Amino acid sequence: MATMGSLIGLVNRIQRACTVLGDHGGGAGGEGSLWEALPSVAVVGGQSSGKSSVLESIVGRDFLPRGSGIVTRRPLVLQLHKTDGGHEYAEFLHAPRKRFTDFAAVRKEIADETDRITGKTKAISNVPIHLSIYSPHVVNLTLIDLPGLTKVAVEGQAESIVQDIENMVRSYVDKPNCIILAISPANQDIATSDAIKLARDVDPSGDRTFGVLTKLDLMDKGTNAVDVLEGRQYRLQHPWVGIVNRSQADINKNVDMLSARRKEKEYFESSPEYGHLAHKMGAEYLAKLLSQHLEAVIRAKIPSIIAMINKTIDEIEAQLDRLGRPIGGDAGAQLYTILDMCRAFDRVFKEHLDGGRPGGDRIYGVFDNQLPAALKKLPFDRHLSMQNVRKVISEADGYQPHLIAPEQGYRRLIDSSLSYFKGPAEASVDAVHLVLKELVRRSIAATEELKRFPTLQSDIAAAANDSLERFREDGRKTVLRLVEMEASYLTVEFFRKLPTEPEKAADKNTPVSDRYQDNHLRRIGSNVSSYINMVCETLRNTIPKAIVHCQVKEAKRNLLNRFYAHVGSKEKQLSAMLDEDPALMEKRDALVKRLELYKSARNEIDSVAWK
């Protein structure tokens, strides 16, 4: 079995490494982080409950800022490392290369670092300060000192300060791996203790809560806290521990903490009320009790910690696979990587077109909505009005009016009508082109393998858009050719099948020539309109076919063909194309470090836990 404290020392090292790598979040650790999986002790109590004095007694050093009101305004993650001897010293995570041997300087650094985030106000921040203390006089332990709970905001504090502090404290003690050290002053009714009330809320069974009674020496004469300490007044799963803090006079005289510990021990041993409990009282006993319990909790949770580590290692490995491994320096490896990236992009692009991803349906929207709407808006009513038909027919006849049917007039009316179809046809080509360009952009953004190569992204986008421009030009020529084909050869059978309508009786007062001409022109306009409608239905079906054939199908088959042909001849430029995004390189480096941390943690836990 591992020696006492060895597991805690290992956990301290792992937690510190997690913090350095940012593998933690709000509260004591981020959701699902290794920090969160490792147990620690949160110190909870009301303002002026004696929290700071308890911590200093456990450490054996006077190192925390003091004052009235809210003094702890940021969480302090305090990691105690037991050494075999030598000098005591402290290190802050925010000043990793600086070693503090003067603990008055530690106090000042905590105050300065607090002010750096919160300013010289009474505001609070949930950004923790990380402090490690190395000493032969401590036990291996991780303690988190939290701002004191309060019931009212004082001058200079926001009205929300009461709730803000409670929310911050809860963000730590809500976590199932957090052990709660609930500090309550003995000279106040335990039923009103802020710490006990909060602990009862988040840990109703009391499995995670240790109760600490401070200020036993300040109770009213003739009263004592034996009922609380023996668990009769408020029972917890773990024993209550009484603490006698240094008096203000001792603090003013700079009585050191080791002397205060001896004085505390003498108080309990000589006390008629607490003498029988003396062996289970005091800061030194509390530190050992917490250390033993923490060791037991860690050992019990080793299987779940290892399972969580293994799961995270698999997730990091998968992330590294998505980001891509480092590329070889030779041209062959670089060319293979580029072609592999292109194929990955091409797969995503085809998925957009074929419906595996959204976007391709917008092409159908062009054919089913935009094209019919544009055709419907064409000004045939105005173009085939009687006035315009008369004008076109007259101009086509020239000096010699037509005898039976105005064939030249018909042809001119049809030709000029058909020319209107060019606008919607070209607009459909352009609309599909824009959809395809947007799908190229989306596909590049969605291709995970490409994200690490911004230059290659740009090159592929440029090559794809060049191809789309060629496809658009082919599509434009094809749809215009469809319109011109309709104008080149009219469907004669349509006109041969038109019924010959007898002239209707007219008003006797209307000249015969006018009556005939109006009806005749009206019938010509109607015939041309019917023919144009027939052509419109044909184009409504053939324009989409042409666009899909020339643009969509070509984009699926040959989008990067020219790029493939040219990239092989750019041997000297391959490395430039694979110039990685610095942000992704940084992300990959961070993942590699996290992977090393988790693998190292797994190996160390395995080696220490079952010795």
Which residues sit in consecutive blocks of at least 5 with pLDDT less than 50?
25-31, 502-506, 512-516
Main beta-sheet strand count, sense and barrel state: 9 strands, mixed
**Ends distance:** 4 Å
Predict the CATH topology of the largest domain: Rossmann fold
What gyration radius follows from the Cα positions, in whole Å?
Answer: 42 Å
Summarize the amount of helix as a percent range. 55-70%
Form type? elongated
Number of domains: 2
Helix/strand/pairing category:
alpha/beta
Fourth CATH level, the homologous superfamily of the largest domain: P-loop containing nucleotide triphosphate hydrolases
Strand order of the largest sheet: 4-3-5-2-6-1-7-8-9
The average pLDDT score comes to 84
Q: Based on the coordinates given, report the CATH architecture of the largest domain.
A: 3-Layer(aba) Sandwich
Give the CATH level 1 class of the largest domain: Alpha Beta
Tally of helical segments: 22
The percentage of residues in β strands lies in 5-15%
Instruction: Give the quaternary arrangement of the chains.
Output: single chain
Report on this model:
- InterPro entries: Dynamin (IPR022812), Dynamin_GTPase (IPR001401), Dynamin_GTPase_CS (IPR019762), Dynamin_N (IPR045063), Dynamin_stalk (IPR000375), G_DYNAMIN_dom (IPR030381), GED (IPR003130), GED_dom (IPR020850).
- Residues 35-303 form the Dynamin-type G domain.
- It holds the Pfam family Dynamin_M.
- It is found in: Cytoplasm, Cytoskeleton, Phragmoplast.
- It is a single chain.
- The protein has 611 residues and is of the alpha/beta class.
- The protein contains 22 helices and nine strands.
- The protein has helices at 6-20, 34-37, 51-59, 103-118, 161-173, 194-202, 226-229, 248-252, 257-270, 283-323, 331-354, 361-376, 380-383, 386-397, 407-418, 422-446, 454-488, 492-496, 512-558, 561-567, 574-577, 582-609; strands at residues 40-45, 76-82, 89-92, 95-100, 129-135, 141-145, 178-185, 209-214, 241-242.
- It has a nine-stranded mixed β-sheet with strand order 4-3-5-2-6-1-7-8-9, with helices on both faces.
- Helix 14 (386-397) packs across helix 15 and helix 16 runs antiparallel to helix 17.
- The radius of gyration is 42 Å and the shape is elongated.
